[in-house]
């Protein structure tokens, strides 16, 4: 319907919101979502926000949930008739969510997340109230983040290496940290540690975090691979660089400068690699020497005299250097386009979820 806002639905979890959320939702609009979980499971709904203008029996604006398998209805909900609990446990693998409005003056609308009964602790927004007051129990915590939290309203402060200010939207920060893919969601493990003086911003996995000041506590995410393999975040050594072409620049003094493939290493000072001007479908190839587990990539532009950078790119991998497989990410439906740099100065991180197992990367 014309009242649908941000929506990402998968068989195991998802996120949905009304149009313009968290701004005022429009007049005379409706949206109907049908949630379908695998057989044998039931759906849990987390009400992140239900702010619909009050009216008698919620006649002007309402949220109504229906369980067609049992014939049970929940609601209608609006500002003067809110859900009695932030988490609704149904007994069905199918739930219909109906939102509608007539004329009204105010209201943010709604934000709802869902997951299956296999993931009882979940929600995109504020779950920090679930932390234990016991310091020993608070060191580590595990929650389930539903799919679709990346684009919900709210800010994050910090980056994957130093952690995040504890006022950050938690599941959005988990996407930024690269511990889950937004299109799938997933279980995240984190700890609540002592805060730091300053949180530096970073662009990672399609999200820009903010630069933030001191906080009492900070959130630190733990990748599964860190728990099993402590060196999984080590920088992999590239044995050989190759490229489809490279630029041989002749400067104003007539001197030749070669932007060759070897200059693509992140630690290289001076100019970087660049394809020949006008080249079609340019590529850069990395030979890791042996088959490795590749969990992510960091890109940076060329900052010496030139404002050159790559805005987006595809990734392919090969085990023999001859047969190439495009990376399609967790959805597996189409080749994934990674969001790259917006300037030549900053580094941008993108995680591979699932990881790539290969010797050659393009």
From TrEMBL:
Domain F5/8 type C: 225-362
Residues covered by the CUB domain: 4-117
Entry membrane topology: Single-pass type I membrane protein
PROSITE patterns assigned to the protein according to its UniProt record, in alphabetical order: CUB (PS01180), FA58C_1 (PS01285), FA58C_3 (PS50022), LCCL (PS50820)
Stretch forming the signal peptide: none
Superkingdom of the source species: Eukaryota
InterPro entries the record matches: CUB_dom (IPR000859), FA58C (IPR000421), Galactose-bd-like_sf (IPR008979), LCCL (IPR004043), LCCL_sf (IPR036609), Neuropilin_MCO_CoagFactor (IPR050633), Sperma_CUB_dom_sf (IPR035914)
Localisation per UniProt entry: Membrane
Record keywords, A-Z: Disulfide bond, Membrane, Phosphoprotein, Transmembrane, Transmembrane helix
CDD domains: CUB, FA58C
Disulfide bonds: 4-31
GO cellular component, one term: plasma membrane
GO MF, one annotated term: signaling receptor activity
PANTHER family: DISCOIDIN, CUB AND LCCL DOMAIN CONTAINING 1, F5/8 TYPE C DOMAIN-CONTAINING PROTEIN
Protein name, per record: DCBD1 protein
Organism (species): Loxia curvirostra
Gene name of the record: Dcbld1_0
């Amino acid at each position: 319907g014309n009242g649908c806002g941000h929506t990402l639905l998968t068989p195991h979890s998802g996120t949905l919101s009304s149009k313009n959320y968290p701004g005022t939702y429009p007049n005379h609009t409706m949206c109907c979502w049908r949630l379908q979980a695998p057989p044998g499971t039931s759906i849990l709904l987390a009400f992140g926000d239900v702010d619909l203008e009050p009216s008698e029996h919620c006649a002007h604006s309402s949220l109504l949930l229906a369980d067609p398998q049992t014939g049970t209805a929940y609601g209608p909900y609006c500002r003067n008739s809110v859900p009695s609990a932030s988490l609704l446990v149904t007994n069905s693998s199918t739930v219909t969510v109906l939102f509608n409005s007539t004329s009204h003056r105010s209201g943010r609308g709604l934000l709802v997340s869902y997951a299956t009964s296999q993931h009882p602790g979940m929600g995109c927004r504020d779950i920090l109230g679930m932390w234990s007051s016991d310091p020993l129990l608070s060191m580590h915590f595990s929650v389930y983040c539903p799919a679709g939290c990346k684009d919900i309203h709210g800010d994050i402060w910090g980056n994957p290496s130093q952690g995040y200010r504890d006022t950050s939207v938690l599941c959005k920060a988990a996407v930024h940290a690269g511990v889950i893919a937004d299109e799938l969601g997933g279980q995240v493990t984190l700890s609540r540690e002592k805060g730091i003086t300053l949180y530096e911003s970073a662009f990672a996995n399609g999200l820009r975090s903010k630069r933030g000041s001191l906080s009492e506590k900070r959130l630190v995410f733990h990748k599964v691979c860190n728990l099993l393999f402590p060196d999984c975040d080590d920088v992999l050594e590239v044995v050989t660089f190759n490229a489809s072409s490279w630029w041989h620049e002749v400067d104003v003094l007539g001197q030749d400068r070669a932007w060759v493939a070897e200059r693509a290493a992140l630690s290289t000072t001076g100019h970087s690699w660049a394809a020949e001007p006008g080249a079609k479908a340019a590529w850069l190839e990395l030979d890791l020497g042996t088959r490795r587990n590749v969990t992510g990539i960091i890109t940076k532009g060329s900052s010496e005299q030139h404002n050159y950078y790559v805005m987006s790119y595809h990734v392919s991998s090969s085990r023999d250097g001859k047969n190439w497989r495009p990376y399609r990410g967790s959805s597996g439906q189409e080749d994934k386009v990674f969001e790259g740099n917006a300037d030549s100065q900053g580094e941008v991180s993108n995680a591979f979820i699932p990881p790539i197992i290969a010797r050659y990367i393009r």
